[in-house]
Specification:
The chain is an all-alpha fold. The chain has one domain. Helix content is 75%, strand content 0%. It is flat, with a radius of gyration of 22 Å.
Length: 145
């Protein structure tokens, strides 16, 4: 009798760990990590394409300024991803300290004559392309196979 009551408790405990979409936390984190990887791939691919385009269209200095901003955007995206990952574990709010990276870069760009603020700023925003891509993909109807 104690064995059957132990089994029913285990089943109840296991079923309570399933979220509203029927996924366990482990499956949800796997989905999160695959989304995170896809965002990085799209961001880095977009960065490479735009960097080459800016280099050809303008000059190497402007392209490198864009690349500096894009790399800062990737660092920002990485910090944001780590912060989101810890959201349910330790924190209840997102940290705003990651803005310091961007603000520091813009301050540096305004102080050094070799750096150009606009290409750096636009480079920083490159990670948003990956977010827009993912949003459009999510809004498209899925293939009913």
């Amino acid at each position: 009798m104690s064995d059957s009551s132990h089994e029913s408790t285990t089943v109840a405990t296991d079923s309570s760990q399933v979220d509203s979409q029927g996924e366990t936390p482990k499956e949800s984190m796997q989905d999160y990590y695959s989304l995170q990887k896809e965002l990085y791939v799209v961001t880095l691919t977009t960065t490479a394409i735009i960097f080459v385009s800016v280099w050809i269209s303008y000059n190497l200095n402007t392209g490198l300024n864009y690349l500096l901003g894009a790399c800062t955007g990737v660092v920002y995206l990485r910090m944001l991803a780590k912060n989101v990952e810890q959201l349910g574990q330790q924190n209840r709010r997102l940290s705003k300290s990651r803005f310091a990276v961007f603000i520091g870069l813009i301050i540096l760009a305004t102080q050094l004559s070799q750096l150009q603020v606009l290409p750096i700023f636009l480079g920083f925003l490159t990670y948003k392309v990956a977010l827009l891509y993912q949003m459009v993909r999510a809004l498209m109807p899925s293939d009913p196979r």
